[in-house]
Specification:
By secondary structure, this protein is an alpha/beta fold. It has a single domain, classed as Aldolase class I (TIM Barrel), CATH 3.20.20. Helices cover 35% and strands 14% of the residues. It is built from 13 helices and 13 strands. Strands 3-4-6-9-10-11-12-13 form an eight-stranded parallel β-barrel, surrounded by seven helices. Strand 1 and strand 2 form a beta hairpin. The protein starts with 10 loop residues before the first strand and ends in a 7-residue tail after the last helix.
């Protein structure tokens, strides 16, 4: 290990030690059938498992059938779904990474078309070929955007049922063998929609003042923390700001982070947005490399809780700088990992931490080493 490179230093959360600070971020693939793992998922996560990251997240997984964002979302609302998830967790851990899962509920963004088919409301053709449509639920009867269904405002009994659903899904995730659980409180989905005044206009104990709007997310965090072993780390992904005037702000997130820390949450995964329809414009939002890192830095510094940085982090130098400047404890990469599933191994080579393809899967490293030697000797590269 080259002295001072933090990206490849171990980090421990409770009983789970990560071999490095590189995380494959949860990314929805919308390719499940009735919530069940399909062959695509095995191929998809196998790449990341072999790629050298310390932690690999399985995408947002619905805690109820009607909490699915689309018909293609993975689920853990019934015991029969554990087996497929166990395959994914075992696969990830077989290659030396730790396995994490993000559990959530789509809220008012549920029952939509799969993202790669355009989002939006399901058509008559979709229904004719077997897709299921239902009325989504949210804090208030406010649609996410034009062309999206208007959700039914949840009763207090329904809200209590959601808490139980998160607990049940978390327990199933542990039975499947996941090392870390993350609660999805971001991107306009159910828990975040209770937080933001853009979606929550309730007048009961779950709406109005910030304290009330935080009530359900905190109840979920408290219940899940109590239901899982002390040794299991609990992460939370938040939208640090809505990027919309009158919406959720970083100042609100600081308050929430402090309360989540008090409930036993171990890390805040700092994303943003999600309450603005894709393609809309907002003068406060300017995307660029590391555009969300400041949120991780502030929450870490001001609330004393570990954070994960996300947002167009592409190069090893940028990821390392985030850690060196104490902006975050982990670096989450999403689309960059789709482009290069071996990003972590390439980063180790970039920093001179490995040579001759050390650290790669033996089955790959042996061939790559021979190929590199042939190139150095001026021979024809091996085919």
């Amino acid at each position: 290990m080259k002295k001072g490179i933090k990206l490849f230093q171990e980090l421990t959360f409770r009983s789970v030690t990560l071999k490095n600070r590189i995380v494959v971020s949860p990314m929805g693939m919308y390719s499940a059938e009735n919530g069940y793992v399909m062959p695509f998922h095995l191929a998809h996560y196998a790449k990341f498992a072999m790629g050298g990251a310390g932690l690999v997240f399985v995408e947002q997984t619905a805690v109820t059938r009607t909490g699915r964002v689309s018909n293609g979302e993975l689920g853990l609302w019934e015991d029969r779904q554990i087996e497929g998830m166990q395959q994914l967790a075992t696969l990830i851990k077989s290659q030396g990474a730790k396995a994490a899962i993000q559990i959530g509920h789509g809220g008012r963004k549920a029952s939509q078309q799969r993202a790669f088919l355009g989002n939006g409301e399901l058509t008559e053709f979709d229904l004719a070929i077997g897709e299921e449509k239902w009325v989504p639920a949210g804090p208030s009867a406010i649609a996410f955007a034009d062309g999206w269904q208007t959700p039914v405002a949840m009763s207090t009994d329904a809200i209590r049922g959601i808490v139980h659903a998160f607990v049940a899904a978390a327990r199933r995730a542990l039975l499947a063998g996941f090392d870390i659980i993350e609660l999805h409180m971001a991107h306009g989905y159910l828990l975040q929609s209770f937080l933001t005044p853009l979606a929550n206009q309730r007048t009961d104990e779950y709406g109005g003042a910030l304290e009330n709007r935080m009530r359900l997310p905190l109840e979920v965090a408290r219940a899940v923390r109590s239901a899982i072993p002390h040794s299991t780390p609990l992460f939370v992904r938040i939208s640090a700001t809505d990027w919309i005037e009158g919406g959720w702000t970083i100042e609100d997130s600081l308050v929430l982070a402090g309360k989540l820390k008090a409930e036993g949450v171990d890390l805040i995964d700092c994303s943003s947005g999600g309450n603005m329809q894709s393609g809309a414009t907002n003068s406060n939002l300017a995307r660029g490399p590391g555009y969300q890192v400041e949120f991780a830095r502030r929450i870490r510094a001001e609330k004393g809780i570990a954070t994960g940085a996300v947002g167009l982090i592409r190069t090893p130098e940028h990821a390392e700088r985030i850690l060196q400047e104490d902006d975050a404890d982990l670096v989450f990469l999403g689309r960059q990992m789709l482009y290069d599933p071996f990003w972590a191994l390439h980063a180790a080579e970039h920093f001179g931490l490995t040579g001759n393809f050390e650290g790669w899967p033996q089955q790959y490293g042996w061939w790559l080493h021979r190929w590199a030697r042939a190139v150095r000797n001026g021979d024809e590269p091996l085919r």
